[in-house]
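Many introductory courses stop at the sequence. We go one step further.
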Amino acid sequence: MTRKTVHKAYFIKRSFGDWVFTLLNGAFFTLFTLLCTFPIYYLFINTISDNRLVQAGLINFFPVGIHFENYISLLGVSELINAAGISVARTVIGTLLMVLASAFVGYLVTQQKMLGRKVIYRFIIITMYFNAGLIPWFLNIMMLGLTNNFLGYIIPAIVAPFNIILVKTYIESLPKELEESAFIDGAGYFTVFRSIILPLCKPILATIAVFGAVGHWNSFVDSIILMGAEPRLYTLQHRLFMYLNMATNLGNLMETTGAIREQDLAAALNGRIISLTVSMVSIVPILMVYPFMQRFFQKGLMLGAVKG
């Protein structure tokens, strides 16, 4: 194809319907993008605007009285710094162990020589659809000594059936000749897993890492249930939940009674502002990590879902 032909291909005459479709399509996705990004923008402008105007609900589209004292003040709240540290540690350690466990178990259940392979794999799948419920789960965690214990965040989430299925399917799509040639050269299963399978599984492992990291970072129910006697183990999301409840309860009290002490009013104002600021801070790590993982995420999810 000559350069002239390629040049003409870019300027093929389009019909009126094509132009209408292109304009409507662009308008729709532009509007959809704005709808998706506006909540984050709204949250941000409320954290940097005058606190009294925020409390009155007067900040909607543009910030007023811009300041960054809310973010600076968070640095002085020791319980928030500690909660952020717990959330980061939980996310990093929990995601790493979950990825390694999913990769290793996913590799094992692809080995034809593994005794009871199909039975073990089916038991893993069954846990996706059937569970004993919240109370038996809590009793089991309590008997294992994981309540009021940091390991209560980590151990129950190490084995993730859905992630194991994705890894298994991805490994089965790899050429079997790679493993066979390694076995012929004298390599063992662990060597094959470490030197061949893990490097080739980067896309699917990045995919499940995104799943795991987002799940660990956003989770707060297990913190509420398991860490009731250990406030130092509260996660950032748990603290945010507490601030939201405080602001909501005091706000309801103001509406129902019409009278509230000045210190309670200040607490309600402070609770709302802190909850907004902590919310903004808590979504920043995900916004920073996801764009770098997106290309692996898309590739891994598509390749890992080809076969069942």
